[in-house]
From TrEMBL:
Signal peptide: 1-23
Domain AB hydrolase-1 stretches: 93-479
Record-level Gene Ontology MF annotations: hydrolase activity
Designated name of the protein: Carboxylesterase B
Length: 503
């Protein structure tokens, strides 16, 4: 019905659990390649679902150590794709779609046809590598089965009484322990951005490039910031779209993101109100109230859907969040809410939730949610004091009332990451300034997932120029806006800085 977004980042999303065995991950124990080793490119037939769509694509892999302090130990194989430049080559343009947990290999394969014939595709090899544990890289990070993920999504997780909070935290502990049992201490403890940045430099060396060009979306801006901080001499040009501010902690980041989704919800509701059949009505003061009247009853009784699974409260919220990433999805949110209002099939909300969670038509999930949680849990220390999370709940209710169920109780479950079984490998800190012209930041005024101010602040920390896009969507580069796309192409190809441009 609709295609997946290429760039995704969500706060503390619902996660699932599964009993798992203590089987060792399928590590390659071969040696790390020399820094001068080159990739051996081959066919993408075993990697891509539709290799004929990108006939010039080449695929390969780069081995890196699970633990850089033990380079001769277990290895992971990073999947890499390249679509070679068709004209005078400047170098490689590495792309990361975000998540964490989204596949850069799949993104490059999707971008290739759209950029075919452009100056970007003429001058750059388009390159993507899947971070450790993600996508086509091996071993794959997995924590839950399909059946258990489905079962978890049926839990509303809204009881913030002492007993309800204890239950939610016990579920999170199970998630954490099962991840540890299935993936092992070393793999889980070295899955974060600090190690992925080192992996990216191994990929650079395997490509044979002294300097790379980089386009990072959403979480990909966090990876790009970490890379330029450590390997700045190897960056020719970097574009960071949908920025994460590395200086703020996880609670503030979540609160800011929830406020961003409220802004996008308000934009959606105002647009919907142009129709007399809008499920939220036409009175702006009643949009949130009408929304809760439609979805809150799902806590006690899920709505029937044509596929017999039913739509519960958690999936209705998740489907709403997914729709707010782009106006292209608003019509599906309207359709789902109309189904709830009329007592007909609200299945589009369930489809939106499936699309976000990576569930296919056969009921199989990709591992994007497992990777998302594993990376964010080691990327920053999380407060363990329950009072900090109760205060976060209070703040979220103020800035994002459409997301809040019931009344404030003074209780709230701690985030999954506060219960994670391995320590953080990074901590919040301001980005270090970069060389003049080395980085350009792009930020969208009503970006729900990575709010505009984060881009402003990251640009200030880096000393980078900022492209502002006026819109309600998550990320914008090479998504059809000529003002943004032309400025980014000129910067990447000719080094022409955009100034503080507004599009």
């Amino acid at each position: 019905m609709f295609s997946a977004l290429l760039s995704v980042i969500l706060s503390a999303a619902a996660v699932a659990w599964t009993p798992v065995t203590n089987a060792a991950p399928g590590y390659d124990t071969g040696p790390t390649p020399n820094a001068s080793a080159r990739l051996n490119w081959g066919s993408c037939r075993q990697t891509l679902r539709s290799p004929a769509d990108v006939p010039s694509a080449q695929c390969g892999s780069v081995a890196v150590p699970v633990d850089y302090n033990n380079p001769g130990g277990a290895q992971v194989q990073l999947a890499v794709i390249r679509i070679p430049a068709t004209g005078p080559r400047i170098g490689s343009l590495l792309v990361n779609p975000g998540g964490p947990g989204a596949s850069a290999v799949d993104m490059v394969a999707a971008m290739g046809p759209g950029l075919a014939g452009s100056e970007v595709s003429r001058r750059f090899d388009l390159v993507g590598f899947d971070p450790r544990g993600v996508g086509h890289s091996t071993p794959e990070l997995r924590c839950q089965s399909d059946a258990d993920f489905d079962a978890f999504r049926r839990e509303p997780m809204v009881d913030y009484s002492p007993a309800g909070v204890a239950h939610i935290e016990q579920v999170y502990r199970q998630v954490a322990q099962h991840c540890l049992a299935r993936n092992g201490q070393a793999f889980l403890g070295n899955i974060g951005t600090a190690d992925v940045a080192r992996d990216m430099d191994q990929v650079r060396q395997a490509l044979g490039d002294d300097q790379i060009n980089y386009l990072g979306f959403s979480y990909g801006t966090e990876l790009g910031t970490a890379y330029v901080e450590r390997f700045g001499d190897h960056v020719r040009a970097m574009v960071l779209d949908g920025a994460i501010d590395p200086s703020i902690g996880p609670i503030d980041q979540t609160v800011n993101q929830e406020a961003g989704f409220q802004t996008a919800f308000n934009d959606y509701a105002a647009d919907c109100a142009h129709s007399t059949d809008c499920p939220l009505g036409t009175d702006p003061t009643q949009f949130v109230t009408r929304y809760h009247q439609l979805i809150d009853p799902l806590v006690a009784k899920p709505a029937a859907t044509s596929d017999k699974r039913g739509l519960g409260y958690s999936d209705a919220i998740t489907g709403t969040f997914n729709a707010l990433y782009t106006p292209q999805f608003w019509k599906f949110l309207t359709s789902g809410l109309l189904g709830l209002r009329r007592g007909t099939d609200p299945g589009d909300l369930l489809t939106l939730a499936d699309e976000y969670y990576g569930r296919d038509a056969h009921g199989h999930y990709n591992n994007s949610q497992d990777a998302f949680n594993a990376v964010r849990c080691v990327d920053a220390p999380q407060p363990t004091d329950p009072a900090a999370w109760a205060d976060a709940d209070r703040r979220i209710r103020q800035v994002a009332p459409f997301t809040s169920y019931g009344q404030f109780t003074g209780q709230a479950p701690r985030d999954l990451c506060a219960l994670w079984p391995v320590p953080a490998t990074s901590s919040p800190h301001p980005a270090a300034p970069v060389a003049p012209g080395q980085v350009v930041v792009v930020s969208t005024t009503h970006d729900p997932a990575t709010p505009y101010q984060a881009g402003v602040d990251l640009a200030h920390q880096l000393g980078a120029q900022l492209i502002t896009f006026e819109g309600t969507q998550h990320t914008v580069v090479f998504n059809g806006n000529d003002c943004v796309d032309d400025a980014v192409a000129r910067y990447l190809i000719d080094g022409v800085e955009p100034g503080n441009l507004r599009c």
